[in-house]
Amino acid sequence: MDQSDGQLLALYRRGDAEALDVLVRRYKKQLFAFIINMMAGGNDADEIFQEVWFKAIRKISQYREKNFLAWLIRIARNTIIDRWRAGRKFVTQSEKADDGLTLAERVADGSPGPEQRVSARDLGRRIAGAIMLLPIEQREVVTMRVYSELQFKEIARIQGVSINTALARMQYGLAKLRESLQDEYTTLEVR
To answer: 1-93: what fold?
Structure first.
């Protein structure tokens, strides 16, 4: 695991399948978090995750060894856009997937104690719901930055905009999230 992405890719190109497995494990959490926060349902998210890796393997010769995760996110973003254009839909806050859970329930954080689990699940639902209400460009930036931990330079490149536009989208998105979550918190306090 101490090897760089470039070293692992070189090993994979020479036939070492284990090197690809290391890359998949290295970026699974961040890539899957981006996908699940952008798409509806577990089945679609799993399919897109697999499709991203298939596309990456087919296009491995086009990778120019800058930021492998950003490259994967770009592939995921394009795949999601293709599915959206083909008539698939984005998630709503309360829409249930095939497993009967909403996106908010799937993304909710599970912490150690029962009270903490309930509190974290509730907060996770509220945050996931608020993120889903953001305009798509802002949702992408927030998701890429928070869940995939990409730098704004990479986010701007993936979205095909200037770094200032990416920063502004993040700023507007966070402001809307604060407003949305503050309104909900105030409503809960009044009850």
So the answer is: Rna Polymerase Sigma Factor; Chain: A (1.10.1740)
